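The records we work with from here on pair a chain with its fold. Taken together, the tokens spell out the fold as the letters spell out the chain. The record below shows the convention in full.
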Amino acid sequence: MRGVGERNILDQFAIDFCKVVEKHCKYILVSGFVAISSGRVRATEDIDLTIEKLNFESYTLLHQSLVKIGFVCMQSNQVKEIFSYLSENIPVRYTRKNEPLPEMEMKFAKDKLDQVQIETRTKLQLTGLNLWFSNINMNIAFKEFLLKSDKDMKDAEHLRKIYPEQVNEHAILGYTRLIKKYRL
């Protein structure tokens, strides 16, 4: 488990961003950051975040809170426009003001599959981060069944090695069925 003195730029970015988000809604960190924060060494410049779907007023409060501590949306500074993107299932990217990297790619939960991810979110002690992640079995299912790039397959292999006590093939198969239903 990493100590506070061992935080890298991605860790600190995620901590600062998610500290604000969790005051407004449930969220999950997904994809490559799950493997990276669990010790896999590979490059990335963004972190993927899914949040529960918010109405305009709730999203406005979230956005204003992010801006207040120095984050900016790369697509627009107009809340209505940003909310429109999110409502149309188009992710938006936030960075720190005047710092193009790293980026937080945020999207609203768009279907039952995203809702299940949020409902089964977990904190991964091995990361040393007090943040919510999508569960290990869901991550493996996405990477092995849907994404399938070399990078994703290596991420899944890493998660299987690091979290053997959490890997459940039956759960992975169930999540694979959900992926077929909602994403293919």
Summary: The radius of gyration is 16 Å.
